[in-house]
Structure formats: C-alpha cells, structure tokens
Write a structure and sequence with these properties.
The model has no long low-confidence stretch (mean pLDDT 93). With 518 residues, the chain is α/β, with parallel strands linked by helices. The chain contains 20 helices and 14 strands. Among the domains are: 212 residues, no CATH class; 103 residues, Phosphohistidine domain (Glucose Oxidase, domain 1). The relative contact order is 0.13. Helix 2 packs parallel to helix 5 and helix 7 runs antiparallel to helix 10.
C-alpha cells in the first residue's frame, strides 16, 4: 500500500452516517475531490476519505481544507446568491430525473432482462444520481456545514435590513417563516396522504370496524374482504411512501407500521378530518404570513435573493435526499437480481464501488473475500488523481498514519446552539439516531440526535423538543421542527456525547441553551 501524506495533517469528522454503504458513497467521494474544481465549486479539498465500521460511516476531511472549502463556497454564495440558486435549480432537475429513471427500474420485469440490459438500466439512473448528489453536497451542505456560514450570513443581512428600515420585527421571530419554501416536502405529502386515508377509513363503517377489532397482522386479509376500496387505498399509500425510510440500505417502511399508525389514530379521540384541516391551515397560514412580511419589509433585490437562496437550500436538502432514498430503494430489486445471477448477496454488492457492478455481472470479475472484508471495516480514500479502497490490515495501516483532531466534551451542565424554533421545554432526553431506537420515545421527551433524516420523523412528532448536534437553520431537524412548531436547537457541539438517555434537561430554544437538571 502506498503511504499517503497524512501524518502531518489534522483530520476531522464532518458527518456521521448510520446505515451507509460504499456503493452509495463511492461516486460522491471522487466527485468532491476531483470534479468540484472543474465546475467552479472550489478546489480546496485535495484529500478525503470515508471510514466504514460495518455500515456506520464517517466523512473525514483535513481540517484546514474543510474550512477553506466552506469559506470559499459560503463567500461566493453570499456575494452571488443567484449563482448558488442556479446550481440548486440544476440539482433539483437532476434529482427529479434521477427519480424518473428509478421508477423505470421499479416498473421493469428485471428477471426477464439480459445482463447488459440490467447494467444499461442501472447506468441510466446512476448518471443523474452522481450529478444530484455530487454537486448537491456543495451548495446545500458543505458551504453551511458546522459553522453555518451561509445561514448566518443571510441572518445578518436580514437583521441589518430590519435595523435600517426600523422594523419592529425580530429576526428570530420571522427567519423561520421567511425561509419556508413554497414547495411541499415528501414528508409533508406523506402526512397529508396518511390523514386523508385515515379520514376515508373512518367514514366507512366496515373498514373502520376492521381496524378497531383486529390485530395488525390480520387487518390486511380482513380489510380486503370487508372493503376492497379501502384496502386499495391503504396499499396505494403504502406503495407511494414506503421508500421514505429506506435511506441507503433499507429496510423500507413495512405495511404493518402504517396499519399501526392508522389503528392508533382511529382508536384515539382525535378526528383525522380536523387534523388534516389543521395541517393544511397551518401551511396556508405560514405562506400567507410570509407574503405579508415580505410586503412590509420592502426588501432590497439583494436581500430578496438571499431569502430565496435560504428557501431553496431548505427545499433542496430534503428533495436531494428524498431522490437518493427513492433511488436506493429502487436499486434494491435490481441489485438483488444481479446478486442472484452472480452468486452474491446484496450486502456484498453494497460493498462494491458502483463501477465494479458491470464487470461483476458481465465478466464475473469480483473478489468475494475483498467484498466480505469491506463489510467489516474499510477506508475509501480519494485525492486529485486516485481513488482507493483499503480493507482489513491495509485499512488499519492507513488509519495509523492519521492524526485526528482532539475533541474534549466535558460534562457541561449547559450547552448552546442555534435556535431553530422558539419555546422552552423541560423533559427527559432520548438519544435517537436510528429507526430501531424510536421505540424509546414517549410523548414530550426531548429527542437528541447527531442529525435527523425522514426515517426518524415518527419519533420527531412525539418530541417535546428537538436537539441536533449537526446542522444549521436550514437542516432537516430545523425544517421539521418549524413544520411541527416544536422547540428546537441545532448545531449543539458534543450534545450526543454529553447527554444520555434519561437525563432531565431544560431546553430554552429561544436563547439556544440546554441545561442539565439534577
């Protein structure tokens, strides 16, 4: 193994991603280092690696390079918001095309396709996945990661404008409203569809009776006999949204989870019709207030563009991930079909770089021992000219040359971050980073996460307050918090290390402070 020039550099962890795969990361890893400079997205990052411990992934950068790249992107975005908006528009288009091509995979009779046709079908989606995720990570993540350079720049510009015109508005009060995008997220679409289906079931005597009288495992067969229309409606919702929780390697949401949610709602005293109307009214009220505030603030063209940029960043962070989750969910049956033909499990295929898939299927070229070793521990390293995967002893030897920055998370009684949705709550901490941890959540608990994804939304809905270690005012946690009107603080360094399950805390999301209580 060639020695990398790493010993004199201090490396940092920029993000931690559970349930991740080399298959998903291989393309963006190269893109960050080798393609961004060619596109004018900054060339400050000369080396990068992803570390995989099983399916837990850490994104690693040289500290000075990560900061330099974030400084470059954020300055350019704040000076030229239209430039960034144009890049986001491209990412949105590529993400939409990626989803479109992924649907073709889902609709195909895969076992009847030739080997070459399977690869062609895969590549037709992959090229848009690469563009969406490769470019999208620049203007929607790296520029604002850790220090929230873009978000805080927009915040300062808005605050200065309010002072200049003598407005009575407080930037804390209106920032969330102004940065709400006009587009509806897939998470919100799922909620509306879920409530509409619940209202439909509640209005049909036999369908409602099935949900109230039978266990979840018996509902499908009983509902199919009792009310085929309601049964079809249930299946349509399930098939339309089950991919939301797939993330990078599944599983997708099971039908039983949706049935359980509908059963719980129907057994409660809550009216799905009223819940749906409140949901839609809240959304309409936010957009109406946004229009009112914009009219009253007499925004300059520059500040208008900054607000539009914030809205676009909020939207694209979710849409880009939604496209990726949908794409990975769509790849699942294709990868399983390829695995069946070459004698590999889907876990072994997930341990491949994307460009190793075609040689494996078309020419039977793969090293099964290497794929198994990668599943245990691996390093995917890229510089300007190379991309290399190390596993086993080679990975361990690579890591010996790494000097990592030290983090000192002392047992502080008070932590601070950025207020994302105001309010004050006292509650019990629950650390939730994976879907299987959501069962710990009880109504009113303080949900603490490194970061959140759509697959954690059911737990987020129960939370009395939300706290995330990563992210800024345009991150997923902040977006969902504002939709739910749940007090929220983001960007709280070390919070998942300092707090633990069962801690009692006071979350002051107006000041951005979390206090441990005795």
């Amino acid at each position: 193994m060639a020695k990398e020039k790493t010993s004199q550099d201090v490396w940092m962890t920029a993000a931690e991603i559970p349930r991740n795969t080399l298959f998903m990361m291989s393309e963006p890893i190269k893109f960050f280092v080798q393609t961004w400079p060619k596109l004018g997205l900054g060339g400050k990052v000369s080396r990068y690696y992803s570390y995989f411990d099983g399916d837990f992934c850490q994104m690693k950068y040289i500290r000075r390079e990560f900061d330099a790249q974030a400084d470059y992107l954020s300055r350019k975005m704040l000076r030229q918001p239209r430039w960034a908006i144009q890049w986001i528009a491209r990412v949105e288009r590529w993400s939409a095309i990626f989803m479109h091509h992924s649907k073709r995979i889902v609709r195909s009779d895969l076992n009847k396709l030739s080997n070459r046709r399977l690869i062609t079908l895969f590549h037709s989606s992959l090229k848009f996945q690469v563009r969406s995720h490769g470019v999208g990570a620049s203007v929607s993540w790296h520029a604002d990661a850790e220090k929230e350079r873009v978000t805080k720049g927009i915040w300062r510009a808005l605050e200065n404008h309010l002072q200049k015109i003598g407005s009575q508005y407080d930037v804390v009060e209106i920032f969330g409203t102004l940065t709400t995008p006009p587009q509806t997220s897939y998470v919100s679409k799922e909620e509306v569809s879920f409530l509409r289906t619940a209202a439909f079931i509640a209005g049909r005597k036999q369908a409602r009776s099935v949900f109230l009288k039978h266990s979840i495992d018996r509902i499908p067969e009983k509902l199919r006999v009792a009310d085929r229309v309601a049964y079809s409606r249930v299946l349509r919702h399930y098939r339309s949204f089950r991919w939301l929780n797939y993330q990078y390697k599944g599983p997708a949401t099971a039908l039983s989870e949706y049935l359980g949610r509908w059963q719980e709602l129907l057994k409660s005293k809550s009216s799905p019709v009223l819940m749906l109307e409140n949901n839609l009214q809240t959304r309409r009220a936010v957009m109406k207030r946004q229009r009112t505030i914009v009219r009253q603030l007499r925004l300059t063209p520059y500040v208008k563009n900054l607000i539009m940029l914030a809205q676009r960043m909020v939207f694209i962070k979710d849409f880009r991930k939604d496209a990726l989750f949908y794409g990975m969910h769509s790849y699942d049956p294709l990868l399983r079909e390829i695995g069946k033909r070459v004698g590999l499990t889907i876990h072994q295929i997930w341990a491949m770089n994307t460009w190793e898939l075609a040689p494996a299927l078309l020419h039977n070229k793969f090293d099964i021992d290497e794929l198994n070793a990668r599943q245990k521990e691996a390093v995917a390293y890229a510089d300007r000219k190379r991309y290399i995967v190390y596993s086993g002893e080679k990975a361990k030897n690579f890591l010996k040359n790494i000097r990592h920055e030290k983090t000192n998370y002392s047992a502080k009684k008070e932590l601070s971050g950025t207020p994302a949705c105001t309010g004050k709550v006292v509650g019990t901490v629950k650390i939730i980073n994976l879907p299987e941890e959501m069962s710990k959540m009880k109504a009113g608990d303080v949900m603490v996460a490194h970061n959140t994804n759509p697959n954690l939304v059911p737990a987020m809905k129960k939370a009395g307050a939300l706290v995330s270690e990563a992210g800024g005012l345009t991150c997923h946690t902040a977006i969902v918090a504002r939709e739910l009107q749940t007090p929220c603080i983001v960007g709280v360094a070390g919070v998942t290390h300092v707090l633990k399950d069962g801690d009692r805390v006071e979350v002051d999301a107006t000041r951005g402070v979390i206090k441990k209580l005795k």
